[in-house]
Amino acid sequence: MSEITAEQVAHLANLARIDLSSEEIARLTTELGQIVDSVAKVAEVATPDVPATSHPMPLTNVFRADTVVPSLTVEQALSGAPDRDGDKFRVPAILDEE
Amino acid sequence: MTNVIKLSAADLSGLLVERSISSVEVTQAHLDQIAAVDTGVHAFLHVAGEAALAAAARVDARRAAGEVLGPLAGVPIAIKDVLATIDMPSTAGSKILEGWIPPYDATVVRRVRDAGLILLGKTNMDEFAMGSSTEFSAYGPTHNPWDYDRIPGGSGGGSAAAVSSFEAPLALGSDTGGSIRQPAAVTGSVGVKPTYGGVSRYGSIALASSLDQVGPVTRTVLDAALLHDVIGGHDPLDSTSLTDTWPSMAAAARAGLADGALTGVRVGVIKELSGDGFQAGVAQRFTETLTLLSAAGAEIVEISAPSFEYAIAAYYLILPAEASSNLARFDSVRFGIRVNPEDGPLTSERVMAATRDAGFGPEVKRRIILGTYALSAGYYDAYYGSAQKVRTLIQRDFDAAFSKVDVLVSPSAPTTAFKFGEKMADPMAMYLNDVTTIPANLAGVPGMSLPMGLAPEDGLPVGLQIMAPAKMDARLYSFGAAVEALLEASWGHTLLSRAPELARREMFAGTATSTAFTSTEGAV
Amino acid sequence: MKKAELMDYDKALELFEPVLGFEVHVELNTKTKMFCGCANEFGQGANTNTCPTCLGLPGGLPQVNAKAIESSIRLGLALGCEIAEYSRFARKNYFYPDTAKNFQTSQYDEPIAFNGQLTIELESGRLVTVDIERAHMEDDAGKLTHVGGATGRIQGADYSLVDYNRGGVPLVEIVTQMIEGGEADSPEIGRTYVAAIREIVKALGVSNARMEEGNVRCDANVSLRPRGSNVLGTRTETKNVNSLRSVERAVRYEIQRQAALLHAGGTITQETRHWHEDTGITSAGRPKSDADDYRYFPEPDLVPVAPSREWVEELRATLPEPPAARRKRLQAEWGFANLEFQDVVNSDLLDVVEATIAAGAAAQAARKWWTGEVARLANASGVSADSLVQPAQVAALIELVVAGTLTDRLARQVLEGVIGGEGTPLEVVESRGLAVVSDDGALIAAIDEALAAQPDVLAKIRDGKVQAAGAVIGAVMKAMRGQADAARVRELVLERAGAAE
Ligand SMILES: [Zn+2]
Q: Which Gene3D superfamilies does the annotation name (chain C) (predicted)?
């Protein structure tokens, strides 16, 4: 059985920036446990000799020329903003520095 | 005149080109049908009646002026709400994007407009395309036109229901693990997931970047091919877009109608995607179809794909992992809703977390948490890393199979449309529903679903899935068109002609006009 | 920690061995951003250079800038790195309002360049080889402005404003291996290393390299190891130290601070620290925590970068002479004394002096004009000397002085005219009527002759012993048969002595 704990789910929710309620955390702990149990079987066949595939089509070196293309207008850029101040997006005070 | 809305896009195209019907008339007829039945079906989240009629009038004027337009110019189309449209809200079925109107068009939307198609509106979907039933749409489920108590499939249930209820002849969908093919199967329509990289993803609100593909949702194979020709081809804005020159899919579909098109075609039946776990009527229709194919000269070959057993597990690691990162941008800063926490200080961090809690539905949260887990330190190798190895194994299985056969077939879905609520409580049961469609996404190969009959036990549509090697989309259309013709000849009619007549909404029944319709714009 | 509580620097070094590491971010000067076609430039107003991709709008997708790849490879080569045959972008996931996608598109375990070396020369002549672990590509974040609160800083702000013009600008992050054995030179190593990086990216032309504008930003890692121990100490990472002098000061401060703390029995917290230019101290920032789980994974929206060996060799052929080698060569060619040469280098005038000499000016004259009058005028108007006037104009001006058309005094006026946009030096001479009168011409010829005849006197005058000029003045008056104003002769003698080679 899976070892997923409520603390772990709370930590994941914090990483994912979702303010889950304690009921949500409890429910997700159970569900996540079940899901993880069933998806963990990938490890059975993922032996070291098998290379990983990240893209279905193996392309490399897809580049764009360094040529300026028109940007959005400032009004378009800010058209969906929940809050703005002049031509900038406005966000509540930031607690953590990066 | 025949009922315009029952015509295929190819037939409409013929009438429009010879100008025996106008695009305004065609568009109006579909808007009337939407007004009449969408209260029950709920395929649309937004209907752009006035804009559609204006665009139709422009196409008519251009044709009247003697301009030669593309084959689908003037034909209406419904757009899955996962695609960015500059003039319509684009919510991806999520509360967090309620009312958001993007400042740009997705590449496929731009191509569809440039080809003169008429955008009717945006179709419903599971939130961020996570689901197989549209029950996870924040705006309420779409109902299956064959039985309103049943799901229309998902995530693109809205697009599939729109074409199968004759609200639109064409629709765009997106397919990450079956979101085009499974809805097509359970609604009796046709859906194609192109080769990964064959159609641009730019402007498609990403679920899982390495799995998502945009594709056509229609009622006939030829219509799907015509639409594929419009949306396909290289797009420099999508770095995973293939630069290949593609053959005409419409020509390929027409070639499939030639006599003897099935003679000598090697058809692989995947052992792991047949037999146990399939509803009896689904298995029965599949076996019957194989018999028909064989009689038509095709060679049926049993193929084993041992790694497919691990496909669902790999998929439900890769998808949540990529999705957890793709959905991080929904943070209430640049677009979308903002929700303040109920109490405590208003900080950026807390407002983001409160917004994401209120704006995302339960399935989205479940997958974000799962994906965050799969990527987190100490688990990456066991989960995400292993899943990507399984992806290699599945590609190898496909390579081996396609060295022996030309196409692979399976039922598109294990069951016919299930009832609302049946699988809501059990996420794993819902996930298992994608067993047939997921391998194609993991390997990037193209897949199609087309109707292969009704299950005797419930009278609901059953879909046949066809898969071809990567970049061989044209083969899907040739083979698909041939199978479609074969099946319809055996039935003596199209499958959708057996769909129930939908109840028409009282207030508009028989009197739906553009004026009456316009009043409901955006509120459908 | 207050300055008074710091441990004395020499004592700190007696007790501890400093171990350093640097992460330098270089902003590339491509025309467009890293992953979209928006202009990579600032100054036209907030959020003017944004698109669905760099704003992180739903559906936006990245496209890699070829020039940024080329610049990164060239930079890697200039740092002596190997260039990866196969390299990938990865997503570094974390939430922050200046990061539009809430992940940074960076490189993780597959950087474009790795295993490099850079040898730097300290003022003492000591050579230090810094091992470069990697140079990887990534995109920059937008700019936050914190509003309200007392300081305009993040702490205590009422709200913040975001401008995404800088979001998505291409960066190369250069990460060193641990630098051990720096000892008392450690702060100077920091300064000299960052200066060397700056010089290299400038020589390559891949960055504007202006530290004051954030084109080159340094994070300095410092830890202390007690003498006799082989266990590494806990390190701190001082962020965004944005001038050469600050790098030196910040490293020195951290050595003294950590030494005091450790000596008093305390422990060092692994944390990021902030450098305060005004007070010269660092302050604690965010401690490392498990919230730093960035969940890196390969960017699925981009395909791998696999530069062919042919391309790499083509780019290697475009590399300029390494700045350190170039400096050595130029100093020898020009015959500058160490101090003279340092003056040119430190004032960032090497390129223009070189160009002026290439345009025909004598080396000393070129140096004197650039570090003297041009620098003075640039200083006065708060701009850089090289933006004030073209090297060709300075060379033309020097030519007029050498020809005797202008005295130094007049030449300074002409320079002002040139800077003021009045034209070439010759045009300014004509339009302002500034040429030396013909009498002066004859006088100057006589003075130059007299100076040349008495090199010992010339040397004395140059040493500042102006009374020695008397001997020359006498000779000139004699040559002019008394037909000259002695005061004017004296003035010109001093001037010519200064101007002479
Ligand atoms: Zn941009």
A: 1.10.10.410
DSSP state letters, C57-112? -TT----EEHHHHHHHHHHHHHTTPEEPSSB--EEEE---TT-TTSEEEE-SSS-S
Mean pLDDT of chain A: 93
Give residue limits of the domains in chain A: 6-45
Point out the catalytic residue in the list B23, B179, B332, B478. B179
Q: Is residue B121 part of a domain?
A: yes
- Closest alpha carbon within chain A to C55: A77
pLDDT of residue A97: 63
Of A47, A57, A79, the CB nearest to B242: A57
Distance C99 CA to ligand 1 centre (A): 13
Q: What is the DSSP string of C445-500?
A: HHHHHHHHH-HHHHHHHHTT-GGGHHHHHHHHHHHTTT-S-HHHHHHHHHHHHHH-
> C321 exposed, middle or buried (CB, 10 Å; 0-12, 13-18, 19+)?
exposed
Q: Which CATH number, 1.10.20, 1.10.3470, 1.20.1070, 1.10.30, labels domain A6-45?
A: 1.10.20
Q: Which of B45-49, B436-440, C291-295, C386-390 has the lowest mean pLDDT?
A: C291-295
Q: By the 8 A CB rule, do C101 and C164 touch? A: no
Mean pLDDT confidence for A74-87: 97
CB distance B239–C55 less than 8 Å?
A: no
List, in sequence order, every residue forming a beta bridge with C24; answer none if it has no partner: C174, C218
Interface of C with A in 262-291 (CB under 8 A): 285-286, 290-291
pLDDT of residue C291: 64
Decide: B128 and B362 in contact? Cβ < 8 Å: no
Asked if residue B118 belongs to a domain, the reply is yes
> Domain limits of chain C?
9-140+169-314, 321-433, 436-497
Token pair, residue B327, equals 């959905």
Provide the pLDDT confidence category of residue B74 given band limits of 50, 70 and 90: very high
pTM: 0.89
Kindly report the CATH number assigned to the domain that includes residue B250. Answer: 3.90.1300.10
Fold of the domain spanning C436-497: Arc Repressor Mutant, subunit A (1.10.10)
C71-97 residue pLDDT tens: 999 999 999 999 999 999 999 999 999
Cβ distance C59 to B205 less than 8 Å, yes or no, reads: yes
What integer is the mean pLDDT of A53-80?
96
Q: Find the closest chain A residue to C298 by CA distance.
A: A54
Q: How far apart are the first and last CA of chain C?
A: 54
Q: What is the mean pLDDT of chain C?
A: 91
Does ipTM surpass 0.90 in this model? yes
Which residue bears the tokens 């500059």? B86
What distances in angstroms separate CA C351 from CA B326, C356, C369, C370, one per listed residue?
A: 46, 9, 14, 11
Nearest to C304 among A60, A68, A89 (CB): A60
In sequence order, what are the residues at sequence separation of 6 or more whose Cβ sits closer than 8 angstroms to the Cβ of residue B321?
B371, B374, B375, B383, B384, B387, C297
Nearest CA in chain C to A86: C46
Q: Which domain holds residue B182?
A: 10-308+391-497
Confidence band of C148 (pLDDT split at 50, 70, 90): confident
Q: How many domains does chain B have?
A: 1
Cis peptide before B155 (omega within 30 of 0): yes
Place of tokens 């996962």: B82
Which tokens hold the place of B402? Answer: 């396609």
Q: What is the pLDDT of residue C186?
A: 98
Q: How far apart are CA C388 and CA C202, in angstroms?
A: 19
> Look-up: residue for tokens 């790694």?
B307
Has residue B122 been placed in a domain?
yes
CA B73 to chain centre: 21
Which residues are registered as beta bridge partners of C323?
none
Which residue from B312, B337, B354 is facing A82, i.e. has the nearest CB?
B337
Are the C-beta atoms of C428 and C422 separated by less than 8 Å?
A: yes
